[in-house]
Amino acid sequence: MSIETEALLQEAKASIEAAQNYRSELQHRVQGLDLARQQIKGSATQTRAVLVQHFQELQGTVSRLLEERLAALLLEVDAIEQDSVRPLDDCQKLIEQGVSTADELLREGEAALRCGVGEQDDKLGSFTKKALQIQLDSLPEVPSLAEVSCLSAQLDDSLLPAVKGRICTHGSVASHPPVQIDELVERPGGILVRWCKVDDDFAAQDYRLQYRRSASSHFEDAYVGQDSEYLVLHLDPHTEYLFRVCARGDGRWEWSPWSIPQTACTTLAPHEWSPGSEEYSLSSRRDIALKNDSPLCGAMVLYSQAPTYCCRQTLTFKIISAGQPDKRDSVGVCVDRRNGQDSLQRDQAVCITTSGAVFVNGKEMTNQLPAISTGSAVTFDMEVVNVFPVNINNNEGASVKLRVTIGSGSREVVFDWLLEQVCEGLFFGCSFTHPGWKVFVF
Does the structure show a pLDDT above 60 at 110? Predict the structure, then answer.
């Protein structure tokens, strides 16, 4: 085979490979178009269903409210009519009694006049006496038309135009939500959700984050506020969850359309305190520890159930309630669990005391953080800076240097921590001397 033929063959193979790649990319784009078309049609179908259901419910509610209001007004008319007619009925009864008495008196008078001469005096005397007793000059008072009720309906003519104006502007259809989920990061027993605005003209005042299991149909609120990220905790590992977010514009009360739902799951076991200690009481999820009023009244380190803290994660200790501080109190991270210790102020551990002092391998640093009290949040962040190789001559294993950042309040302390060996995970712990300290770890 000549060199020219070989070159043509190679060029043909390259062209075939390029055509295959080109076809593969086109097919991938066709799949992307199919997904986009499914999203458009699926969201349109869902939007139609939501609109129909909303306006049917609105129509039914408005109709019911109008019927209830009409019934209430008609009852009010009936009550006013009955109250107004009742005095007239009473007056009419008095008049009818007077007419009946006058008719009877007339009959007696006419009969007395027709009597003979012998009986006429007695009859006329009796008639005159009876007429004086009846008080023929006493007449009941009949109210004038101005004094009695004249019912009318008072209707606000501005209601219909106002309702019509609200109905004409009620609801809207948006093709793009103003906010979308930007990142989903797994955390021990949870998912860190980050979102961002995609509409620069939309001024967001608050955000609302919801989530649900993939197998469920009901979303529940996880967060409402101004932050653009939130850690959703108490999620079951290896279980898929759907997340969505929306926003509320500045000065508005209604929420924007929801973002495109995103699916995520965590494979990391949640942080848990180790059970079985008489010094501490734990919550049902074992993520909250309360220092008991133990008769021993001594300090004891409570460790995590397992070494679940890993580098490039944020470990947070939230102080729910505070007791009396002590110089041995501490919260922090350590390489191993050592029973019988009264503090994390030891080697192979980093910690912060309730007074804000930072200890590294049992030695206090010069930098200090704010004192810990109720509501304080202490964070630990670590990343690997360098891994030192195995020293065969000294029969030593590999060691690792970690860059540690401890935050409390608005301040941080950053330092390097040298470990004698590489660890896949670290334990966390706390120690308090006096009762009343309650710590939530996540």
Answer: yes
In contact, 270 and 234? CB cutoff 8 Å:
yes
pLDDT-derived band at 263 (thresholds 50, 70, 90) equals very high
Whether pLDDT at 297 is above 60: no
**pTM for this prediction:** 0.64
Q: From residue 264, how far is each of 243, 244, 348 by CA, in Å?
A: 8, 11, 35
- Residue 46: both structure tokens together: 């869902």
The amino acid present at 32, given as its one-letter code, is G
Say how many Å lie between the first and final Cα of the chain, rounded: 70
Per-residue pLDDT of 395-431, as tens digits, reads 455 688 999 999 998 999 999 999 988 888 999 999 9
CB-based burial, 283-298: b 16+ in 10 Å, e otherwise: eeebbbbbbbeeeeee
pLDDT value for 298: 66
- Look at residues 408, 300, 315 and name the one whose alpha carbon lies nearest to residue 291: 300
Measured CA to CA, the distance from residue 308 to residue 442 in angstroms comes to 11
If you ran DSSP here, which 8-state letter would residue 304 be given? B
**DSSP code per residue over 111-177:** HHHTS-HHHHHHHHHHHHHHHHHHTTT--PPPPPGGGS--------TTHHHHHHHHHHHS----SS-
Helix (H) or strand (E) holding 402: strand 399-408
Give 318-341 pLDDT, tens digit per residue.
999 999 999 999 999 999 999 888
DSSP designation for 261: P
Return the structure tokens found at 115. 């009597």
Over range 170-177, report the average pLDDT.
84
Q: Cα separation of 211 and 189, whole Å?
A: 15
308 phi and psi angles, rounded to 5 deg: -90, -5
Residues 6+ apart with CB under 8 A from 162: none
Measure the CA–CA gap between 126 and 111, rounded to whole angstroms: 12
Beta strands in 203-348 (DSSP E): 204-213, 220-225, 229-232, 241-249, 262-264, 280-282, 288-291, 300-303, 314-321, 330-334
The answer to whether 378 and 331 have CB atoms below 8 angstroms apart is: yes
432 burial (CB, 10 Å; 0-12 / 13-18 / 19+) is buried
Indicate the angle between helix axes 117-134 and 3-113, nearest 10 degrees.
150
